[in-house]
Amino acid sequence: MKIVERLLLKLIIIQFVFLLLTQVFFHKLNSFPELQQLAQYEGVSENDLTEFLETFSSK
Q1: CA–CA separation, 26 vs 34, rounded Å?
Q2: pLDDT, greater one: 24 or 49
Q3: How far is 17 from 56, CA to CA, in rounded Å?
Q4: Closest CA to 27 of 12, 14, 46, 11
Q5: Are 26 and 32 in contact (CB under 8 A)?
Q6: What does residue 46 show for φ and ψ, rounded to 5 degrees?
Q7: What domain range includes position 13?
Q8: Rounded to whole angstroms, how far apart are CA atoms 40 and 37?
Q9: Tally of domains in the chain
Q10: Full-model pTM
Q11: What is d(CA 40, CA 16) in angstroms, rounded to the nearest whole number?
């Protein structure tokens, strides 16, 4: 049972490292510019409070 636990822990760590590397690759290095446009369109990237409030007050 100890071997399985160690194996699962190693897999989780490897998955996390690949997740971080993928996030850096897509977002910081701008390798997929459409992703940034989609994130801005969906409203999930770096909106400040005033833009958020303006969105609600315009309804």
Answers
A1: 10
A2: 24
A3: 38
A4: 46
A5: yes
A6: 45, 50
A7: 2-57
A8: 5
A9: 1
A10: 0.51
A11: 25
d(CA 2, CA 10) in angstroms, rounded, equals: 12
Residue 36 structure tokens:
């940034």
CB burial of 24-50 (b: ≥16 within 10 Å; e: otherwise) equals eeeeeeeeeeeeeeeeeeeeeeeeeee
Q: Residue 59 contacts by C-beta under 8 Å, 6 or more apart in sequence? A: none
Which residues, 6 or more positions from 56, have their beta carbon under 8 angstroms from its beta carbon?
none
Segment 5-17 mean pLDDT: 97
Whole-number Å distance between alpha carbons of 7 and 38: 37
Two structure tokens written together for 26:
């897509």
Give the total residue count for the chain.
Answer: 59
What is the DSSP annotation of 1-59? -HHHHHHHHHHHHHHHHHHHHHHIIIIIS-S-HHHHHHHHHHT-S---HHHHHHHHHT-
